[in-house]
Amino acid sequence: MSRIGLKPVVLPAGVTVTSNDGVVTVKGAKGELSVKLPANVSVEVEDGTLHVRRASEEQHNVMMHGTARANIANAVKGVSEGFKKELEMNGTGYHASMKGTSLVLAVGYSHEVVIEPKEGVKISCTDETHIAVEGCDKQKVGQTAALIRDVRRPEPYKGKGIKYKGEVIIRKEGKRASGGKK
How far is CA 31 from CA 37, 49, 86, 119, in A? Predict the structure, then answer.
């Protein structure tokens, strides 16, 4: 039984929800998002809350019920508050800068890496070693942040690379010189 799907989604002030032909459209201050509903799942809006209903108790419908509710809740949060991922760069000579809306990374390669943001996503550099990715779509923000991190993942010996803010890198001990035996 899906417990997530049974929880109502509270609609903040300024957020409107409409449902047409299996597509839920959520509009708010930060933008507009559409969520496609799976078959046998419907939504009802009443008194500032949104309820997600399923047609039957089959296993597949129960799973999709919770997923649909979570996707709609993410859309509501995205258009009202927005989502943000922060990244940090560690390493000698590693730095980031902005060229228009594009992010330019210098991370130890022979060339600079240019990353174009996805539509609806804003990338900014607070300083040379900190990057912020913001937007109303949680999936696009996460995907853009993952693409930036994949340019140079943190390595386990010195921790050099691009990591999420607050991410813990488990360090490995380096090789040691032998004790003189051959």
Answer: 20, 19, 21, 12
